[in-house]
């Protein structure tokens, strides 16, 4: 009976060291990882973990939202695990412990999965509200544009003379996509 870990971070630039440490402390003999958004259906690390595991094994995750953000997705994964005789252990959060799809345990797990999805939706809502408030105050997020008014004037003049976007981009040391975005 093996304890197999699964960790997931939402962006390629994020690191899962906290999850890694917790899974190691929980005695996971092998850990699978995905670097993808929870809403992303493509999770090769989770699929590999599920393929590797056998009846009697335990899938261990740091927190419920690492398994998936959609209530349906989390419950479907939990049911697949149970159908194959694989336990689900959650290390932290309100639902820490081992998942049992029976009676009160199933009801509690379903409610926690719904709350995890609600939390994700609220984070998205707050993020969008914050971005809208910043935009209303004239602040714009993201990296500063490499296209200044001078560069744009030069680019438009070269384009008017019939020079290709590729040649202009190379000469001005900007990407073709950036030029297309600014001069069409």
TrEMBL record:
SUPFAM superfamilies: Homeodomain-like, Resolvase-like. Keywords: DNA integration, DNA recombination, DNA-binding. Residues 2-138 form the Resolvase/invertase-type recombinase catalytic domain. GO terms for molecular function: DNA binding; DNA strand exchange activity. InterPro entries: Homeodomain-like_sf, Resolv_N, Resolvase-like_N_sf, Resolvase_HTH_dom, SSR_resolvase. GO terms for biological process: DNA integration. Transmembrane segments: none annotated. Belongs to the site-specific recombinase resolvase family. PROSITE patterns: RECOMBINASES_3 (PS51736). This is DNA invertase. It comes from Streptomyces dioscori.
């Amino acid at each position: 009976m093996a304890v197999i870990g699964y960790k997931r971070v939402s962006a390629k630039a994020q690191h899962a060291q906290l999850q890694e440490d917790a899974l190691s402390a929980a005695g996971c003999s092998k850990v699978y990882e995905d670097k993808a958004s929870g809403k992303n259906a493509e999770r090769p690390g989770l699929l590999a973990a599920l393929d590797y595991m056998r009846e009697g094994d335990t899938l261990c995750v740091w927190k419920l939202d690492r398994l998936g953000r959609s209530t349906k997705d989390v419950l479907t994964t939990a049911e697949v695990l149970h159908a194959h005789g694989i336990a689900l252990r959650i290390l932290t959060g309100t639902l820490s412990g081992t998942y049992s799809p029976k009676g009160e345990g199933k009801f509690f797990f379903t409610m926690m999965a719904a709350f995890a999805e609600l939390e994700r939706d609220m984070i998205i809502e707050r993020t969008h509200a914050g971005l809208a408030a910043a935009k209303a105050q004239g602040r714009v997020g993201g990296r500063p544009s490499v296209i200044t008014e001078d560069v744009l004037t030069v680019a438009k003049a070269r384009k008017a003379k019939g020079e290709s976007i590729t040649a202009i981009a190379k000469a001005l040391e900007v990407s073709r996509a950036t030029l297309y975005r600014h001069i069409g």
